[in-house]
């Protein structure tokens, strides 16, 4: 963010000040990474996927002196900021495609990146993680919008595939879409509800930012809301936790614990979720 009177500011710094729950998520993630490093009780390697400008990895390097920290960022504008921030630290910054990383790791952290990444990144994350390791996956999801029937269907779905923003749930649906562009009615209905649930959430985030005087954050969130409301927009696509949980299972992970930040009595604002994942046995 920049105006005529100020230096450009790192949006990732501003988000920690003006986006509700982001600073809390960071504290939780650092606690959970620390917990898993202690549990493993050996010199560990921690990989942060989507480190943006490197703020959390910089902290991890300070707080976990025994651990090797690898920070990964493919998005060039953020990788440039991370290069600066991490220059005099012992964090190893990697900016090639995630799929090129090969070194086995003990703990993976990803915060705020899942909804930007292609879902096959989860399979690569599983291949990097040692069998007794942990993956702390935190993100801003779309508050749940699936019906009870859809939840039951999703929990057994043999595949989750995004077809220009529409969620397909079997190889047969994927094949029909590829051949004739046919979408199941369920996929269209879910997308309609996703957009409404999403707007309700973004409105809350923007109201909170404005009332705290964080105008830059409000503007950035309005841009994200605009992108996210466009079906099939790749830069920004938040899905219901139930869909993400199926992606997680299909990639070979088991959800050991789930932490939800938000008003306990209002599930329509349950967007900020942190999962502790382990390898499925
Ligand atoms: C909000 S940042 C993650 C926040 C970060 N973990 C932090 O601690 O500040 C979103 C991540 O999604 C990925 N990404 C991919 N495409 C992007 C895009 N067009 N805009 C922003 N992030 C993008 C990047 O890896 C980026 O680090």
User: Structural class of the helices, strands and pairings?
Assistant: alpha/beta
How many discrete domains?
2
Q: Which molecules other than protein and nucleic acid are bound?
A: S-adenosylmethionine
Average pLDDT rating: 96
State Rg: 19 Å
Would you identify the CATH H-level superfamily of the largest domain? Vaccinia Virus protein VP39
Head-to-tail CA distance between termini: 46 Å
CATH topology of the largest domain: Rossmann fold
**How does CATH name the architecture of the largest domain?**
3-Layer(aba) Sandwich
Please state the overall shape, judged from the principal axes of the Cα atoms: globular
Strand content: 15-25%
According to CATH, what is the class of the largest domain? Alpha Beta
What is the structure about, briefly put?
The protein is α/β, with parallel strands linked by helices and 281 residues long. The chain has helices at residues 11-18, 22-40, 55-63, 76-86, 121-128, 148-155, 171-180, 185-211, 215-229, 241-250; strands at residues 45-49, 68-72, 92-94, 105-111, 129-140, 161-163, 166-168, 253-261, 272-279.
SSE blueprint:
Elements: H1 11-18, H2 22-40, E1 45-49, H3 55-63, E2 68-72, H4 76-86, E3 92-94, E4 105-111, H5 121-128, E5 129-140, H6 148-155, E6 161-163, E7 166-168, H7 171-180, H8 185-211, H9 215-229, H10 241-250, E8 253-261, E9 272-279
Parallel strand pairs: 1-2, 1-4, 2-3, 4-5
Antiparallel strand pairs: 5-9, 6-7, 8-9
Helix pairs in contact: 1-9, 8-9
């Amino acid at each position: 963010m920049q105006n005529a009177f100020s230096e450009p500011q790192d949006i990732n710094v501003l988000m920690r000040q003006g986006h509700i729950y982001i600073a809390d998520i960071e504290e939780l993630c650092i606690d959970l990474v620390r917990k898993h490093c202690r549990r493993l009780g050996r010199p560990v390697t921690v990989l942060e996927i989507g480190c943006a400008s490197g703020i959390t990895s910089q902290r991890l390097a300070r707080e976990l002196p025994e651990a090797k920290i690898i920070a990964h960022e493919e998005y060039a504008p953020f990788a440039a900021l991370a290069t600066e921030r991490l220059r005099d630290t012992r964090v190893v910054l990697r900016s090639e495609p995630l799929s090129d990383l090969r070194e086995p790791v003990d703990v993976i952290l990803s915060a705020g990146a899942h909804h930007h990444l292609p879902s096959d990144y989860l399979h690569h994350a599983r291949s990097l993680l040692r069998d007794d390791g942990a993956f702390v996956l935190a993100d801003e999801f779309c508050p749940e919008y699936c019906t009870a029937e859809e939840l039951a269907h999703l929990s057994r779905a043999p595949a989750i595939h995004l077809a220009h923003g529409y969620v397909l749930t079997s190889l047969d649906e994927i094949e029909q879409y590829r051949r004739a562009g046919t979408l199941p009615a369920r996929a269209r209905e879910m997308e309609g509800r996703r957009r409404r649930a999403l707007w309700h959430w973004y409105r809350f985030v923007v109201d909170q930012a404005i009332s705290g005087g964080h105008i830059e954050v409000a503007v950035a969130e309005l841009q994200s809301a605009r992108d996210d409301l466009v079906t099939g927009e790749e830069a920004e696509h938040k899905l219901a936790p139930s869909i993400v949980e199926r992606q997680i299972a299909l990639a070979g992970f088991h959800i050991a614990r789930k932490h939800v930040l938000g008003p306990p009595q209002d599930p329509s604002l349950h967007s900020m979720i942190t999962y502790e994942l382990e390898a499925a046995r």
